[in-house]
């Protein structure tokens, strides 16, 4: 009986400690600055694609048979995960601040195309992505950067898109 009394006496203080820890973790997550969030790089693979000119500065990238997006963070977090293309685009358009919005602050990316002679790579700025889930086709508008010329073939095979660092808060569907 004595052990039960001690347990009953310790239970409220134990619950208080647990509640305090949980509330401090939730408070810290809710009050995290964008600069405190992990910065991610994204990798997208496609089996084939094409590029076409929209106007003097804007181009159109179409990627076929895209795989899930691989996300990994820089040190010290070192987080690696995958998301569906649709989840990635939901984040792109639904971020809560300019600091973690790819829509408001379009990312840079390296577009790497594998061909029979090796690889071609160009640096681009991506914007206005759209995804056709049924056809598994991902499209972006883009601008060439860093004096990159439009030397890409109009159609190509396997390609990898490496998207620059960005902050991502919780996925809009996670809450």
What does this molecule look like?
With 175 residues, the protein is an alpha+beta fold. It folds into two domains: 1-31; 36-167, Elongation Factor Tu (Ef-tu), domain 3 (Beta Barrel), CATH 2.40.30. The chain is built from two helices and nine strands, in the order H-E-E-E-E-H-E-E-E-E-E. It has helices spanning 2-30, 85-94; strands at residues 39-53, 59-66, 69-73, 80-83, 108-115, 118-132, 137-144, 155-156, 159-167. It has a six-stranded antiparallel beta barrel with strand order 1-2-7-6-5-9. The longest helix is centred in the N-terminal third of the chain and has 29 residues, at 2-30. Mean pLDDT is 77; it is low at 6-30 and 171-175.
Q: Quick recap of the structure?
A:
This protein is an alpha+beta fold.
Instruction: Name the helicity range.
Output: 10-25%
The CA-CA distance between the termini, in Å, is 44 Å
CATH architecture assignment name of the largest domain: Beta Barrel
Major sheet description: 6 strands, antiparallel, barrel
Q: Give the tally of β-strands.
A: 9
- Tally of separate domains: 2
* Unreliable stretches covering 5 or more consecutive residues: 6-30, 171-175
What is the mean pLDDT? 77
Record the strand order, biggest sheet.
1-2-7-6-5-9
CATH class of the largest domain: Mainly Beta
Number of helical elements: 2
Order of helices and strands: HEEEEHEEEEE
Structural class: alpha+beta
Overall shape: it is: globular
């Amino acid at each position: 009986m004595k052990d039960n009394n001690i347990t009953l006496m310790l239970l409220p203080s134990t619950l208080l400690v647990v509640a305090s820890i949980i509330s401090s973790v939730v408070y810290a997550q809710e009050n995290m600055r964008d600069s405190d969030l992990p910065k991610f790089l994204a990798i997208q693979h496609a089996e084939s694609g094409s590029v076409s000119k929209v106007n003097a500065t804007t181009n159109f990238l179409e990627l076929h048979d895209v795989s899930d997006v691989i996300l990994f963070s820089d040190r010290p977090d070192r987080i690696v995960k995958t998301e569906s293309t649709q989840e990635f685009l939901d984040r792109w358009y639904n971020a809560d601040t300019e600091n973690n919005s790819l829509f408001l602050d379009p990312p840079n990316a390296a577009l790497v195309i594998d061909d029979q002679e090796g690889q071609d790579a160009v640096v681009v700025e991506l914007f206005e992505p759209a995804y056709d889930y049924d056809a598994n086709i991902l499209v972006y508008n883009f601008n060439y950067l860093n004096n990159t010329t439009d030397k890409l073939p109009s159609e190509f095979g396997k390609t990898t898109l490496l998207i620059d660092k960005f902050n991502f808060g919780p996925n809009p569907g996670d809450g």
